[in-house]
């Protein structure tokens, strides 16, 4: 299957690396001329072009739009005249609706996704909204690509924003916590590299346990807080400093609440 990724920034690069790991696809990409992207194309050995006309000549089965949200509709409009109707468009642009894209891409199959950066290591969380009139064949094609990048959660488009905040922005929120924990470990005498390793391993294990057991996070927390022990003292400090509400409000704000 031939896949062209348009916009090779943080998300586009992560998708390309994840697709490249799975070694199942012929990958190409389009980006304005940029030495960073040229270097990545050389390293991963994918074909790089700079114009939508060149994208058309590649005859991709799938085009993934990872351009900045504000320019995505304009890029889609340019593509509409260049590509044939067979190419399936998958847009990762947060906040750009199916309807806005369908207006400039008539007669094209368009799916909306919100992926996250862990797609780079094929451990992504990908919210997917499919159009109601999509064919079984197109659905299979889209799922073949996305399943190679991580967990795909299919849902109606009106739920894509909140999945996008939890799945898409969530890694940044967890990274902030990991960074703070690493600083605290360094303060208490651990060297920084070991601190990063311990924190990443702990988050990976905690995530895997929650994912595999399907237990509620509160129950998993209770299993750590031994009576009269150290953890409950830390949890008390988190409550005192409003950690829980800080997280809830981060989600509120990322989801557009004023
Ligand atoms: N980052 C994330 O975790 C997530 C991002 N997304 C979505 O992915 C999209 C990209 O975000 P992100 O990767 O963070 O942003 P970046 O700024 O890191 O990447 C954007 C890329 O698009 C390129 N670009 C700009 N204009 C054009 C154009 N007209 N044609 C082709 N390429 C273009 C830029 O090129 P250059 O800089 O070389 O000029 C850059 O390489 C957004 O729509 C965002 O909503 C969705 C979920 C998660
Ligand atoms: O920050 C953003 O707008 C994008 C969408 C989800 C994650 N990053």
Furnish the topology, listing elements before pairings.
Layout: E1 2-6, H1 10-22, E2 26-30, H2 35-44, E3 47-49, H3 52-58, E4 62-65, H4 69-82, E5 88-91, H5 98-104, E6 109-114, E7 124-129, H6 136-147, E8 150-154, H7 160-187, H8 192-213, H9 217-224, H10 230-240, H11 243-254
Parallel strand pairs: 1-2, 1-4, 2-3, 4-5, 5-6, 7-8
Antiparallel strand pairs: 6-7
Helix pairs in contact: 3-4, 7-8, 7-11
This protein binds NADPH dihydro-nicotinamide-adenine-dinucleotide phosphate and (2S)-3,4-dihydro-2H-pyrrole-2-carboxylic acid.
Residues 6-12, 30-32, 34, 37, 66-69, 71-72, 75, 92-94, 114-117, 168 line the site of NADPH dihydro-nicotinamide-adenine-dinucleotide phosphate.
Question: What do you see in this structure?
Answer:
The protein has 258 residues and is of the alpha/beta class. The protein has two domains: 2-155, Rossmann fold (3-Layer(aba) Sandwich); 163-254, Orthogonal Bundle (ProC C-terminal domain-like fold). It has eleven helices and eight strands. The protein has an eight-stranded mixed beta sheet with strand order 3-2-1-4-5-6-7-8, with helices on both faces. The longest helix has 28 residues, at 160-187. It is elongated and about 65 Å long. The model has no long low-confidence stretch (mean pLDDT 97). The site of (2S)-3,4-dihydro-2H-pyrrole-2-carboxylic acid (A1CAB) has 4 residues, from helix 7.
Largest sheet: 8 strands, mixed
Instruction: Report the mean per-residue pLDDT as an integer.
Output: 97
SSE succession? EHEHEHEHEHEEHEHHHHH
The strand line-up of the biggest sheet is 3-2-1-4-5-6-7-8
Q: What would you call the shape? A: elongated
